[in-house]
Amino acid sequence: MKAAPRILAINGSERDGNTADVLRHAAAHAAGRGVEFEVVDLRHIRMERCGPCGDCNDRTVVCSVGDDIPAVVDKMIAADGIVFAAPVHGFGTASLMQTFIERAGVGYLRFDRPLSNKVAGVISVARRYSAGEVWAQLTVNALLNRMILVGSGFPATVHALHRGDALEDFEGLKNVERLIDRMADMMTLLREHRELTGRDALAAGDVNERVGLPLNELAGVE
């Protein structure tokens, strides 16, 4: 029996609020598609900020700061798809998600892009303003990691102010459902291609996009 496709959602909110409600809605919809849906709440993990070492652009080994980031990265690598979800705080991405992007990306993901060809979805939650800017930032992060981004028609941006408001944004939730449906379909297509051919549908490309590093020299990249 084949294992069900798996989506891992990264919740960048500091609270169990509207973003969590949206992800619970997404999880229920995913279950109807036979997709496992796990949420990592960044507020519950031990996550340090980037330290003062300053050698991130030169190092060729993973970050030495000890916290829970490596365990979350392992979950991302094991998943078929990843949803990045964050609320707007101060007209930008909530600080937990920003810290996670920095720590996971610079510290672990940039060396050989292990998220390449995984399916990505992005959700932002906002009172009214900057939902698009946060959605765009998380989208660019997914593309940087060479993921396969699926759309939902209109972006999956959900509007809310007070707790519970997100569940009243029916258009926003419909876009979230479309996002999950398209992620499920794409994950299935990619899995079928892999089973049929024994390889990914898209080549991962060079080892690392940073030129002049030993990693790339070993791979013949100049």
TrEMBL record:
Keyword terms, alphabetized: Flavoprotein, FMN
Keyword hit for Flavoprotein: yes
Any single Pfam family the record assigns to this protein: FMN_red
InterPro entries the record matches: Flavoprotein-like_sf, FMN_Rdtase-like_dom, ISF_SsuE-like
Gene3D superfamilies noted in UniProt: 3.40.50.360
Domain NADPH-dependent FMN reductase-like: 5-157
Superkingdom, natural source: Bacteria
PANTHER family from the UniProt entry: NAD(P)H-DEPENDENT FMN-CONTAINING OXIDOREDUCTASE YWQN-RELATED
Name of the protein this chain belongs to: Flavodoxin family protein
Source species: Streptomyces prasinosporus
Lineage, opening ranks: Bacteria, Bacillati, Actinomycetota, Actinomycetes, Kitasatosporales
